[in-house]
Design a protein that fits this description.
With 211 residues, the protein is of the alpha/beta class. Helix content is 11%, strand content 27%. The chain folds into two domains: 8-37, no CATH class; 74-208, Protocatechuate 3,4-Dioxygenase, subunit A (Sandwich), CATH 2.60.130. Strand 6 (142-147) and strand 7 (154-160) form a beta hairpin.
């Protein structure tokens, strides 16, 4: 036996039929229902940031950027790719590139360059090292291009709250690097021990706008 509770569609249709729900402009009941039931946006889109001059097409599909014995602080970057309602997006890809520990981009090959798949429900994880500083840039950073079907391509950068440039207060000092346009791109860094060595970890959620 069915309960007396109306479904969302039935309640909406009842309101339309009874005249208690009106559209301000001509619109079909089907379209009105689609708009009514669509996911609400509860997040802001991840801020964009400059592409930079060192992007290079053709990076391999891998989540492991650092090699055995690479100098520098081991770093894991994890997160998800979602829409503005927080829903995981299928078929999302993140292309990343950065300097090595010494602040050098590999312009001849593909060290510290990769394409990473963001699996729905589990997100992504990148194993790398903390990028170094170099003369043309003030803050340490990782570049990222994120793509997902039906959504705008996101070009941005990841920054680190532990960077000495920010003097322990990223919210106040983020403009010390003129290319850091939004403090939301600066993320806390967690330190932990792995096999007797200090590792760093950062979480970065990519929030995508619909195209």
């Amino acid at each position: 036996m069915r309960s007396g509770k109306l479904t969302r569609r039935e309640a909406l249709e009842k309101c339309i039929a009874g005249g208690s729900l009106l559209a301000a402009a001509p619109i079909s009941d089907v379209r009105l229902f689609e708009l009514w039931t669509q996911e609400k946006e509860i997040y802001k889109a991840t801020p964009t940031n400059a592409l930079g001059p060192f992007f290079k097409k053709g990076a391999a599909e891998t989540a492991i950027l650092r090699g055995p014995g690479d100098p520098g602080l081991p770093l894991t970057v994890t997160g998800t790719v979602t829409d503005l309602s927080g829903k995981d997006l299928y078929d999302s890809w993140i292309e990343v590139w950065q300097t090595d520990h010494f602040g050098r981009y590999d312009l001849e090959g593909y060290r510290y360059r990769a394409r990473v798949s963001a699996t729905c429900g589990t997100g992504y994880a990148i194993e790398t090292v903390m990028p170094g500083h170099y003369p043309d840039r003030v803050a340490q950073h990782i570049h990222a291009i994120v793509t997902s079907p039906g959504h705008k391509t996101l070009v941005t950068q990841i920054y680190f709250a532990t960077d000495p440039v920010f003097v322990g207060d990223p919210d106040r000092n983020y403009k010390r690097d003129p290319l850091v346009e939004n403090p939301e791109l600066i993320r806390p860094v967690t330190l932990h021990e792995v096999d007797g060595r200090v590792h760093a970890a950062v979480n970065f959620e990519f929030r995508m706008e619909k195209a």
